[in-house]
Amino acid sequence: MSYVIHGKTGDWEVVIGLEIHAQIISKSKLFSGAATDFGSEPNSQVSIVDAAMPGMLPVINEYCIEQAVRTGLGLKARINLHSVFERKNYFYADLPQGYQISQYQHPVVGGGKVILDLPDGTTREIGIERLHMEQDAGKSLHDQDPRRSFIDLNRSGVALMEIVSKPDMRGPEDAGLYLKKLRSILRYLGTCDGNMEQGSLRADVNVSVRKPGEKLRTRTETKNVNSVRFVMQAIEHEAQRQVDAYESGGTVVQETRLYDAGKGETRPMRAKEFAHDYRYFPDPDLLPLELTDAYVEGIRKSLPELPDDKKLRFIGDFGLIPYNASVLVSEKDIADYYEKFVAEVLVRTKLPKERIGTECANVVINDLLGHLNKAGLDIAKSPVTPQMLANLQALKHDNTISGRIAKDVFEIMVETGKDPADIVAEKGLKQITDTGAIEAAVDKAIAANPTQAAQYKAGNEKVAGWFVGQVMKATQGKANPGLVNELLKKKLKD
Amino acid sequence: MTLTDLTLAEARDGLTKGSFSAVELAKAHLAAIEAARGLNAFITPTAELAIARAKAADERLAKKTARPMEGIPVAVKDLFCTEGVLTTAGSHILDGFKPTYESTVTRKLIEAGTVMVGKTNLDEFAMGSSNITSHYGPVKNPWAPPGDKDLVPGGSSGGSAAAVAARLCLGATGTDTGGSIRQPAAFCGIVGLKPTYGRCSRWGIVAFASSLDQAGPMTRTVGDSAIMLNAMAGHDPKDSTSAPVPVPDFEAAVERGVKGLRVGIPREYTMDGMPAEIADLWRQGAAWLKEAGATTVEVSLPHTSYALPTYYIIAPAEASSNLARYDGVRYGLRVPGETLDEMYENTRGEGFGKEVRRRVLIGTYVLSAGYYDAYYLKAQRVRTLIARDFSQAFEKIDALLTPTAPNAAFAIGEKMDDPVAMYLNDVFTVPVNLAGLPGISVPAGLSARGLPLGLQVIGRAFDEETVFATARVIEKAAKFDTRPPCLKK
Asked: Is B320 known to be catalytic?
């Protein structure tokens, strides 16, 4: 996959790095005991530490450390046993301390990687530079009053992980895949809910362009982009803007920009909004964070199976093609559903799992996920359970219904939530396997269409398919298609 | 018997025996506070609160459920947040601020049974060595010879030192970042201890320089200091820098003596221009310790001369960040402006005094891009060397003896135009903060003008016991009369 901008002066390559702010799943904040629930009444989740009252001191939330280490391990990264919290100093009304406690020179997690699953089934590795912990700021509300700004400190002090990628991405697609894969890993780990609409996952997008083979040129940083689609659009726009700038004889300045989703463009932040000298220095209220190998190993042992491992297992165990496997493992709930489904089908059909793996994958990916996407439902809210879906598969395998009928039954299942056997009985959809009945229908079809029958005899074998359709129509699709085919071919030749 | 003349230990015994009540003791001190208004030692006297707590103390005394400091009147430096009681840090910017919480140290003092009689004056945000930088006006040193010019009590815990010396309370809390307990203790002829960094919780104390700040007791005797430290000290999970170490019985260590103790006399503390009377007193102190069975050895702390400049980089750096929260948004003073930035400028420009603004600027400068390595980082490295000087010395000795300050109390208004001359007051105390060690100032004699002079005993980290025992030997030998002349009529 190579994304190229064809400019007037030739082709341009796009270089992208992402800084992701991921809110750590934790009941309380990074340095205080206040709660972190989203959507609470303004200023209802603020301790005297979060409000930076005089004399207040931060105390690290050990669970947040564990979550950060767990994430680092999930990103196959180096865990730094010694890390340091520093103060990033700047004034803003929603930053009560006048500084953000963050990690700067010594982050808790060093280099790691994320593997992208490309649509063609191949993979690509994106490097992770580092992961560090930091506090979130509060929120300034400028639209509540014509003259005044209001401050909501509920988010103040909430624990974030900043995950910084290497500039390894080369197009909007890469960035989209990276963001989705990272979100998937975080969700598997249970360290971030990945909810971009609620702001638990935000992206700062670093973009530069260059002619192939050149060294890196100046990059810009587009801040706080809050959906996968917007990240991709922001990159597209920003890269094109930079190419246009160079090709019209201008330059690109290193600056911070904002993405305007309404206009679909990036624009520079006012100079004042980013011209800070943050005066980082180690926070004297906190001791350096010292971890032990035993602590890290303990967390490593508790890691769940992650998407990349699961994907390999699915390919090996169920004979799936890599792309299908990557779709199924993209969310843990989907993977779990699929495995449960396969297990239930095995119980009912006694077939080897390599034989039904792909079939079941297709049912989940094409039918179930297709329907859920249309309905806007998560798999957790699926009206069809794996057991019900397995019942449907079993009906197909024992020839009670045909594949075509099965599709109809599935549609009724998702609408009504009824069991497939009941639907088949109720609607009389049981497959006709009685040779006599089918033979009669075949005879009737040939008799009613002498012209087409003559064509077949003259050598136009395609007409056979047309006859199958006629017979199926006559039997409301219930005739066993194999038998219909067999009988038709025999009778048409006669 | 004058109740205000009792030591803390004597008052404790009197209360236990029922010789007088906690209410009587409180009233005597509240009356003294009223009579001594001219000293300006208190920003906020808390008479009503004191009487209420004294009554509760009397009930416990009657029921024989008294706690270690039941009914003892103490004053609290106005840097400690006290629930429901105005807390100013000596600054205009905290106008009207009444915390909804109690600092750990003052909570422990309440839980030990003490009766708070008021919040004492201090240099603004504890930045100063003279108490002149307080928004609430200077404190007067009760030792000023009658008819002479008003003298500073030292600082920043000048209100606490003056209150203890003038018998307005039996003990007071102070905080010490570079000498703020020990130097005013020396100027006011009382005992002031800066415990080991991490011994007392910093939670709820308005922060000046987090890596240096430490709370400690200010009392008239070494024994009282030990009693009060026992009530103040202890690990606090709310302060990540407070040490999870046990608190020994300090009072039991006071009379331990110094027999066999090796006391170091640091060569580098002999300063050019140091008054002869201070050098003499220092020699005298060493002689007293030898007479009591200690040996004295000259030691070297080679990086001493870098301590003051190092301190004046690290402390302002931390302060510039610690004081960022005083922005007019949530509490205290707000001076409006057209924009947010203008509101900040107006509030902080009016709310902070000159010395605080100076240190915020210095601190901001030394942390700025391009200067960080040359100033802050280098200062941190030098700090490590200074701490190493001490740890190497303590391989050969058990305690160090130095003067507390290079001069006695000076007149209010002196040294005002030369901040560096003012900063020199802390030349002997600052290295102790940089190394995080315990140090005590004990009154040891009078200058020719009749002003108190103190000697400093420095100990190993968490060895306040040796510090107390050594200071007690000097106290006994010096036979210092802690009554300032204004009380001798």
From this structure: no
